[in-house]
Automatic annotation (TrEMBL):
Keywords: Membrane, Transmembrane, Transmembrane helix. This is Putative neuferricin-like. GO terms for cellular component: endomembrane system; membrane. It comes from Stichopus japonicus. It comes from the Eukaryota.
Length: 299
């Protein structure tokens, strides 16, 4: 009885062994069959197979480390980041570090945005100053509207590239904790978002006028509910001048001196708002006209 259990276990093991060899080494399996020499060969094959697999795993890990030396949430010094401009290519944005190797045609040697590699130049994304002295990280002093653009770029890098860590410097300390500058930057972005929301609401209340220009007739502005059409189809080129905001009411074109704005814009004003002091009439335009020809280009 005991002998037959041992025999059963042995043959199960041998069969399992044979299946593994046949699976990974089909040719060798045929050669080996079950001769004693063949079994030794199979054993050597398995050892060889296991060691090759181990080497391949180590190689892959090595490769990964080379491509992304940044497993997890690593803290980079500016010197470490500065060394990462080829393979991999890393870039800092608002203190976050991204692996942008897949965008090497932009950021790699010879790329049009190569100067962004190996550093955090957040400010330059807004100022467009790509000189040595313009490639700065600090966005202090930018307008809230510009800070909103910073957020757009940050969203872009977070969506399109791999986040690999933080840069010790303007926005994070040596332990990866946010600095006061990062808090200020987020505050500025929030201000920009608030301004934009208010601006959008204002545009819905006082939509931009439709406008068209031709050399012969000059500029015409209008606030009818109808948009400019050709063969009953809206002319998108001109209608886009309404700011893409649809209007189901007729308004009166006015110069709108929006509080805080540097210049006026043409707004369609509903009748009950005409007394609002932020609105001024256009020259040559009847107070009750919904369409006006402007006296000059600068008006
Ligand atoms: C402040 C100004 C600008 C900044 C900060 C900027 C930044 C960038 C960045 C970072 C990229 C790479 C995006 C990626 O990773 O996929 C890019 C791509 C590109 N930029 Fe700019 N850019 C600016 C102005 C311009 C202007 C004025 C033009 C056109 C005249 C332009 C044309 C392009 C084009 C065509 C691409 C795509 C190139 C391609 O896919 O091969 N950029 N830009």
């Amino acid at each position: 009885m005991e002998v037959s259990i041992k025999l059963f276990l042995f043959s199960t093991l041998a069969l399992g062994f044979a299946i593994i060899i046949a699976w990974y080494y089909p040719k060798e399996f045929q050669l080996a069959s079950f001769s004693p020499l063949g079994s030794i060969f199979s054993l050597v094959s398995v050892i060889d197979f296991v060691s090759k697999k181990k080497a391949a795993t180590a190689e892959r890990a090595n490769e990964q480390m080379k491509r992304s030396p940044t497993e997890g949430d690593r803290i980079f010094s500016s010197d470490e980041l500065a060394a990462m401009t080829e393979d991999p290519i890393l870039l800092g944005f608002l203190g976050k570090v991204f692996d942008v190797t897949k965008g090497s045609k932009h950021y790699g040697p010879g790329g049009g945005y190569q100067f962004f590699a190996g550093k955090d130049a957040t400010r330059a994304f807004i100022t467009g100053d790509f000189t040595e002295s313009g490639l700065l990280s600090d966005i202090n002093g930018l307008e809230p509207k510009e800070a909103l653009e910073v957020k757009t770029w940050l969203d872009f890098y977070e969506k399109d590239y791999i986040y690999v860590g933080k840069l010790h410097g303007t926005y994070y300390d040596a332990d990866g904790r946010p600095t006061e500058k990062l808090r200020s930057a987020h505050h500025l972005i929030a201000e920009g978002q608030k301004e934009k929301a208010a601006n959008d609401a204002d545009k819905r209340k006082f939509p931009p006028c439709n406008s068209e220009w031709s050399e012969k007739t000059g500029t015409r502005i209008w606030c009818s509910t109808r948009s400019l059409t050709l063969f009953s189809k809206p002319l998108s080129l001109f209608n886009s001048n309404s700011g893409g905001i649809s209007r189901d009411w007729t308004g009166f074109p006015r110069k709108y001196f929006q509080p805080g704005a540097k210049s006026f814009r043409c707004a369609c004003v509903p009748e009950q708002e005409l007394d609002n002091p932020h609105f001024k009439m256009y020259d040559n335009c009847d107070p009750k006209a919904i369409s006006c020809k402007l006296a000059s280009k600068n008006e």
